[in-house]
Fold each of these.
Amino acid sequence: MGIATRRLALACSIALASLAPGSTGWAQPAPSVQLGATEPMGLRGLLRVVAADLQPPGFFAVGSTYEFFSAPDLLASDGLKADHARMSATYSVAWAPWRLLEAALALHVISNETTGAARDELQVAVGDPELALKTGFAVGRGLHVGGLLDLRLPSAVGFFKLSGSALNVLVAALATWEAPRALPLRAHLNLGFQFDGSENLVDDPAALSPAQRFSAQISSFHRVVARVGVEYLTRWVGPFVELNLQPFVGAGAPSLGDSPGRLALGVHGWLGPRRGLQLLAAVELGLTGVGDGAPSTLAADRYAFVIPPWALTLGLSYRFDPLPAAVVHTVHRATAAAPRVAEPVPFESDRAALSGTVVAGDSEEPVWDARVSIEGQEASALAVAPKTGAFRSYPLPLGPTKLTISAPGFEELRADANVRADGPVLRYRLQRKLTTSSGTLRGIVSARGGAALASATVLLPDLDRTLGVDANGNFSLELKPGEYNVVISAPRYRPQRKKVRVFEGSTVILNVELYR
């Protein structure tokens, strides 16, 4: 069987073993209506860069990713140049069990073929389990920070052996920044340290051929990890670029130019508006640390792996939405006398609630009687909390929408908003009208039993104003829209304190009975 035939058979056998649905997951909305992407382990990110923001709770995904390269004269054995090819398959499961945790479990199957050296070699590693745990949270508008713990247990290629002392541990700090909505860009930064125990896979690495050491990626040095990535999100695709540098550290470590350094160009694509199915395609170019003939041996007992000059990665993923949960929301219309109950709305991962705060533009005080309406949504007049001016909608479709915010005494405000699962709480400022219509406070003061109290007085402490009543106990007063304290009293009767809200152009009725 020829070399080309053997490589084709190798690639086909691994591809046929992966026909189960696969996933690196999906991502949450970016600044526009678009969605981000995930990296091959299933965590939210790009190719090797991990994003600091998290998938929504209940997110679950499965998937598979394939990496291939073939390079002539990559290795040297017994003075002879050797060609090398590799096919790696990664099968992953990703899960977000809680709001601040994202986890991924993967199994790597790696096949390496070396030809043209003293002897042809084919090594296959069945194993390499990997577990990754990530947390993250928002710290400002468009900025998320987080942390990553990644554990990989390599198996010695060609030896089918696992060793706990060979564990690779990556600890990294994560940061993600989203540009304003008009510019759908996301930038990611990973800084961490890789503890590499791969040289413990075998008792004597020097007894291995260069091809075997390259296949196992055996290293005597730990590494600093620095990754930077930028993605641009359109409606159906998300092109990205990332730089991955991993300088070796420790006594006798290779220089930065001999340490792994790669530049990746890739794109994520979605085949439908729900973004359940995601495709990944990327090419990775070796910038530094590329093998040229003697890639492994630095000294008799010191080794540092090299990377291929290029690698092609293809991935297929499918995300599962969180389980639906029916929620009933009470929504108030500005003109309704009683609250109206909306229909049960199932929670879906492509929906999110919209939150905000309504304040007066001149004082930053909450506007207690504001109403927020959402364009195109029935029963969407949302009342704000009187003490804070805050409001929160029921789950809405992700993407841009328009709000209309109104309140007596203020100019109506029309504003653009973006519904996102991790969107910030926006602040909307209403400007007072230069001229406003007054409201009317009207009522009757009587004694217990119904007799009118012509001697009663009505005091408004906020205005330092006292009003008398007529012979029938009637009073009437025009007031600017707002909230007022009212004290009603009469000689030999216990006073009563009331709080009323006066609306523009409306009449508030306040009838009071006084007791001795």
Note: The chain has two helices and 36 strands.
Amino acid sequence: MRNFARKPMTGFVPLLIALLGVISPYQLYAAEAGSEFGDLYAANCAVCHGAQLEGAAQGAPLLGVELKHGQEVEQLITSISDGFPTQGMPAWQDILTHEQIKSLALWISENRSGLLYSDFKIDSELRIPTAVQPSEYHNFVFTTVADHIDPLPFSIAPTPDGQILVTEKMRGLRIVGVDGSLSPLITGTPATFGDARKGGGGLEYGMGWLLDVALHPNYANNGWVYLHYTDRCEGCNDISIEMQRPVSMNALVRGRIENNRWVDEETIWKADLAHYSPASDVAAGGRIAFDPDGFVFLSIGMQSIDLIQDLSAPHGKILRLHDDGRIPADNPFINHPTANKAIWSYGHRSPQGLEFDPIERKLWETEHGPRGGDEVNLLLPGHNYGWPAFSKGQNYNGSQVSWGTKQGIELELKDIDQPIVDLTPSPAVSSFVLYEADAFPAWKHQFLIGSLKAADVYRMKIEDNKLVEQELLIKDLARVRDIEVDHNGHILLLLEHASGGRIVRVSPALLEQQATAAAP
């Protein structure tokens, strides 16, 4: 069983809570993030490689070409560190710090891949392709299922009869009919709040949001719908009273939908009010996953950074419960004297996707790193995934991730589970599915993973806990907030965009469509 060593802290926690009350975790370093990396390049590299990475008389271009010595971040770090003295490029390892060299490598990689930190693609041009889209194994087409959804949706859940439940973070729950029509908001669901504030890149920061929606595996017989949301209150704990601000924390309920009303609600999990935080719900996690044995998993993000490695707190954890909310007797910390007994794994930053693989009986998660370091993780019971003591990415100002040291947390690398897939530079990985349907047979038992900042969808084949194949399936579409599979085995994408959210379907291209596309 894993645990952590921790030294007493004085003064740091109140300061951090105060910071998080006014600044999102994503914004802690954002004031410097946009310029600092570029300034470092301009001061040290631009004279040889060009101000826009276009190259110069004495240096090769860094954009639009294959880099002879490798273009992955680690390869770039090696090239910058060691240099190529015989070709006129000095070794920088004795001039710049390792973190400065890593910052340069990340910044070059971000520019090469179009994943600039400051571009979140909130209002980038949105065009749903009408032509047949090629991919390695299957050609496919897009169809718009529903539009005019709120610009900030979070989750979809297709029902057996062809309808789709959709959550709008700041508004509530709706039903998309088989004809694409949107129902009025379902009445009686948990309260939501729309008083968010704009942050860098157009992102919204607030609290009291509706997040994931999921159908019980036996929904056809019991009608249970699960909602993961952030419960918001004011004046309900010491932090809220002291700061005179609202606080929130994840919660999970289930209920049924009858005549456009939410009824029969039952609370599956809710935290003690002492754990409610003033941090923005942008990092709240908020996903739901079921396994075939009657258990439900839920993800909670870094609502308070200093508590992620604290087993008595829910922050930065994946929880496991019976589907009615009871604590399973075989949970990994059930006999720990001070731990929250619902914890399955811990050390998570911002969990974005959560799925259980019923074939191999494994729980998987996607997670946002800081600048770089997005992850695909295999979640094992009782294991520690490292945040905030370790990340393959950097803080937004280029410094090393070392919050654990500041908090007096001592962790050895051997006690931290590393990601199965590291995504650096960060595409802002989002939700995913493990595809098991027949419509796209060559994709079976593979991961289809969405992204926000990249606006892409990736196909990943993982065998024996190793990435063996990866394809950029869909490029530059829109922020993909959720991915699901409908009753026909077609892929549903929930898109987030300033012009309005929408659901699009990815279907196999018919033979006649492929022939038309191939015609001269």
Note: Residues 376 and 421 are 5 Å apart (CA to CA).
Amino acid sequence: MKVSDLFVRCLATEGVRHVFGVPGEETEDLLFSLEGSEIAFVPCRHEQGAAFIADVWGRLTGKAGVCLSTLGPGATNLITPVADANLDKAPLVAITAQGGLDRLHHESHQRLDIVRMFAAITKWNGAVYDPRVLPEIVRNAFKLAEMEKPGATHIELAEDVARLAVPAALPPIVPRAVRRPDADRQALEQALSLLRKAEHPLIIVGNGAIRERASEQLERLANNHGVPVVATFMGKGAISDRSPQSLFAIGTGFKDFVRAAVETADLVLTLGYDIAEYAPDRWNPAGDKTIIHIDVAAAEVYGRYPAAVEVVGDINATLRTLNGRLDEAPLALDRGWYAPVRQHILGDIAGYALKGLPFTIPGALNLIRKALPDDGLLISDVGSHKVWIARNFPTYCPNGCLISNGLAAMGIALPGGIAAALAQPGRAIVAAMGDGGFLMNSQELETAKRLGVGYTVVVFNDDDYGLISWKQDMSHGHSTGTRIGNPDFKAYAESFGIRAYRPQSVAELRTALDEAIGSRALRLIEILVDSNVNRALVDKLARYWGK
């Protein structure tokens, strides 16, 4: 048995179903070992697309997505999505090839020190030098990638090591479940004491609560005791936006309506919150909020995040304990103090209903929400549409809306749709992106078509890097260096054999969305949008805050 055969056996033991990548000369042995296994190698059109698929696979399933590249330029093409997975806390294992060990001591063709390069963007990485420790390396990579807080790991396999012989009896290491400890009782008592003293407590929930499947206990706490919940962009769906306690999301670069509730709150309980999702400077600018930190890890030292108590342990178990104690002696709160804020948010979202042309992103999102079932999934790329999706798109279930907000990398949504459709076939899925993000990985339309996966690609087209224009306009009154040109997106999709639409009226847009999403087939809808709504929002909020 070759090392590459053992490697594949180790991957299968980890439950890997797909490896996404671009083939290379130095991955030859590994590819042929995969060919004879139950694991499918999925050739993609760019390493970035492959790793973004693995990234979203990990975020949706909690099991590490796996991507593969050759050495040199193949490996460097993985850097952005691997870093994205690491900052977004999505489990991912990247495998890269390397030249033979006999040429690593000097400069040689395509040789880069990838292990050192990936050290800055992974939880752990290493190279296989001794075949006998390969099972330990693979188990370690997956254990660390999937263990809270999850992230990216990396394994380098040189081409000559891959073809070495190993004993057939050398077994993979079988994964074992690792239980997280319960929170410290004294910390729980301190948190309860602070909650009982508060009149206007508020919960900020991050993606960690979704990863830890804490939504049921979160809704129990919020609904039973009238505690409002604000989600980060990545925490959307941790509580249903139909809940009267949901105040939707916080995370925009400007002061939105939800900040009225945050400013009124005399205590903030953060739940599975990561600073990378939204800096505390934005919601606690004076650094004077009383904060209860509930997470699997201690709070990061941060000037504007002075946690009064840190309840460290399994999030779901912590909430269950808190709920049990609070059921015995409910909180005495000023219930409903946040209701006017929620009504203002709901009214604002409804106010963007499309009545005719031109189309706007928030108006189109209202129609997408109507066409998408409650348990459907919207994947957002990065751009001005991300802001609108975060603040205007009601989400009704955990992982019902995926937004990258750690690294916030453009180009994730289209390949992310492939991951979602493979992991959750039959689910209604929309991958929404701007024209800029679409063309960064549009080549993966061919991968999606070849795989036969079904989801709807929505391209908001304003011939601009719209988010940058928006921010430049806010600071300088105009934009520069952002205007771009585009091909005919409808014809482009049709050239891959994909049905595509470019609606010219609200009725046509509604029909296109209903057909595309309802079909569960691969579709593309290009929506020509007017970006003036972006500046109008800023002006509206300035009037609201009296500036």
Note: Residues 288 and 544 are 24 Å apart (CA to CA).
Amino acid sequence: MKNLRISLLLVAFALILSFTHVIWIYTTGPVAHEDAKAGVLTLDEALIKENKMIDLNGEWAFYPNELLTPQEVAEREPKAMIDVPESWQVNQTNQEAARGFGTYHLRIPAKALEGEILGLRVNKINLAYNLYVNGDLIQQLGKVSRLESDAVAERRPIEVNFASTEPTIDLVIQVSNYTYDTVGGIVNSLLFGTDEAIQHYFFYNKLFQIMLGLILLMYAIYSLLAGMIGIAHKQSYFFSLILIFMLISILVDDDYLILNIIDLSYEGLTRLSDFIYSGMTWLVMLLIVNHLTIKDNARLLIRTCLSILGFILLLQVFLPVNFIRDYLILYAIPWVITSGLILYQLMKQAKYTKRINAILIAISLISIITSSFWGGMKNAFALNILYYPFDILIAASVYGAYLTYRVWDVYQQNEQMENALLQAQIQPHFIFNTLNSIISLSYIDQERMVKLIRNFSTYLRFSFKEIKLNKLVTLGEELEIVKAYIKIQQERFSNQIRLEWDVDHSVDHVMIPPLTIQPLVENVITHGILHDYEPGLLQVIVRKEADAVYVEVSDDGPGVTQAHALLNQHEDAKAGIGLRNTHERLKQNFQRGLTIESKPGEGFTVWFKLADKES
């Protein structure tokens, strides 16, 4: 039942992501208006003056298999009308194939815009063009030619501006395509508005890409560092590689920001883009499968799909660019199948493993799937919308949260193991010696034996209840253990240990690592008081000082030379083991450890301070 609820929540999450995409499309795209008809676009000039953008969709005049100048277009009747944006052969003109050349023409009556500085955004025209406005050539991309051997393909979005000096804006675009077998001509909307509107809009478009890229870079560095310190290092390194792929995918998407860094030909840019997107998806799936415990049959099926994806990824390095783009469906089919299988296995595994792990990975995968799906929709339907960074950001953030959860989980386990190890170091010999004392007293002094058993049970009760694997206990609980420990030692060694107990119980609430004071007392008794045959004084002082709590344990025994060496991690002296453990744990929790003061013949004192957060 829980698994069903989780599945429904994940489905709801996917629907929410898709809903936000739809909202984004309708709120960040060009404003709605009437499409061009018969090569003329009736313009709502008020919209343009309000710094709104429109698309130049609709029927354009078209001259297939001809490259005409604006002067020649003015003297000729169009051979056909063609829908923009759309591949020219799909429009059923006499442009028989996607490969070839032709001329587009659109007239925009705009008398009220005379004197304005206007702008155009050209996203994608396959795959070289010359753009004329009112007879002037204002933009060239690639090299337009009637001959395939002479043409040069290029792809990048361009924003251009021009002064409106005529009552009618006359657009002529010469296009040639010798790369794609399935798509040719103007395949994305041209956006039109004031130059200010165009520049403002695409400033944010680029800003979103740069910000997302920087965030992914920071995540990559964080993940790499997590791997370097040994926390889930394989997954961390893998995730870092995926984030670098994501970062590059941003640079080769929308505004092709990578072209501001390195100069790439059309073929180089296209190969890099296809390889990065396919490789990123493949790596994500490999990473997620690495987290799953899957039965042999399901694992074989998933690995088969991943092998197919890997083979297609390898083909992209060697096959012609147009083949890759024209037959992209060959990659999409195993990608969809593998994604579904992995999601199913994630939900299935959530029953048997930490549910939070499976949920975080599933959310990350769903975010990548929706990003890829809506990216495909954007390209398939030539949508002009502001760059959408949120799915990839969610995917990276959630998986980053998963890694952080792993780091914290390992850290907690280490803390627990450390406390358990410390407890194991202290208890066995003490318990063994105490039991021997109980046995001995049973023959000579049963009354002392009863007292010893009572104190010993108190010690064990507090020890196993509060210290077992807790990170912190109250000072009051720690002192109960210390008091029980001292009484046990007093019973064992009769009158050899005199105790001065000076404790301010108003600070009992202060939190302290377990087994912090007890090792200090044990060290003083074992290596100080019991070192001599004469009775010794043990002092335990706990008092409040301003916003701190002062804790001191001391004796009047023989003292030591070079007391500071006892806290040295490289010191082998047995007398320092408990002190060093306590010193390191105090520094880990409170950034300051023990202080030791001792001289030969002048006793031994060890003290530390804790912050009293309620002061």
Note: The chain has 15 helices and 19 strands.
